[in-house]
Design goal:
The chain is an alpha+beta fold. The chain folds into 2 domains: 76 residues, 2-Layer Sandwich (Dna Ligase, domain 1); 104 residues, Nucleic acid-binding proteins (OB fold (Dihydrolipoamide Acetyltransferase, E2P)), CATH 2.40.50.140. Helices cover 18% and strands 46% of the residues. It is built from 2 helices and 14 strands, in the order βαβββββββββββββα. The strands form 3 sheets. Strands 1, 2, 3, 4 and 5 form a 5-stranded antiparallel sheet that branches. The chain has a 5-stranded mixed barrel with strand order 6-7-8-13-12. The chain has a 3-stranded antiparallel sheet with strand order 9-10-11, with no helix packed on it. A hairpin with a 5-residue loop joins strand 10 and strand 11. The longest helix has 22 residues. The radius of gyration is 24 Å and the shape is elongated.
């Protein structure tokens, strides 16, 4: 789930940045420190959006920099277990596929795709079901449920596991087919009642 999170910190403004606008300096320093990192409490920190810097800073003896308290807003992505998300398949491997959900890639293991024997063609980037002949390929849009989340800290990526072995999950075109079949079955049942 994406959300805007309010955080606080202290930024060290080095002497070579004195004279530059304080908000811009603070934004640059916060972007370097926080963007593209993982925080166990807030998940993937994607983008620093707003910064409010105390104009009055502190000087520490022996250090020519000034230290300013900052309050800032960060766009974060925290994958929640059981959450249903849509993503795009970005890589096919021998053991499944990686699905890009937000700023992270989640593992969709072969055993979590469907009740059918599946084969992976890594070179072509295609997973094919033997009986139903349904395929997933690099670029396919899929709807999945998050089943496992293990976030790292700092710049380590963490791990996310997903499944599409439930009704109305899987490739978007599969879902559209299921919805159309359900609509036809409902109309047939209504006609049979009349």
């Amino acid at each position: 789930m994406f959300e805007l999170v309010n955080l606080e910190d202290v930024v060290r403004v080095p002497p070579d940045r004195f004279g530059s606008p304080l908000e811009k300096v603070a934004m640059d320093l916060l972007k370097l420190k926080y963007e593209s990192t993982i925080n166990p409490e807030h998940g993937y920190l994607v983008l620093v959006t707003k910064v409010d810097v105390d104009k009055v800073g502190k000087i520490i003896a022996g250090d020519g920099a000034t230290y300013h308290r900052v309050r800032f807003e960060v766009l974060s992505f925290y994958p929640m277990k059981q959450e249903i998300v849509e993503g795009e398949i970005v890589e096919v491997t021998d053991f499944g596929a990686f699905v890009r959900i937000g700023p992270a890639d989640a593992l969709l293991h072969l055993s979590q795709i469907m009740d059918d024997y599946l084969t992976s063609d890594v070179k072509s980037g295609i997973i094919t079901a033997t009986q139903s002949k349904r395929t997933l390929r690099v670029g396919s849009r899929v709807r999945v449920r998050i089943t496992a989340v293990s976030l790292g800290h700092g710049i380590s990526m963490g791990k996310i596991g997903v499944t599409c072995r439930q009704p109305f999950l899987g490739a978007v075109e599969w879902i559209e087919e299921e919805v159309a079949k359900a609509g036809k079955a409902r109309k047939a049942a209504e006609r049979a009642e009349k």
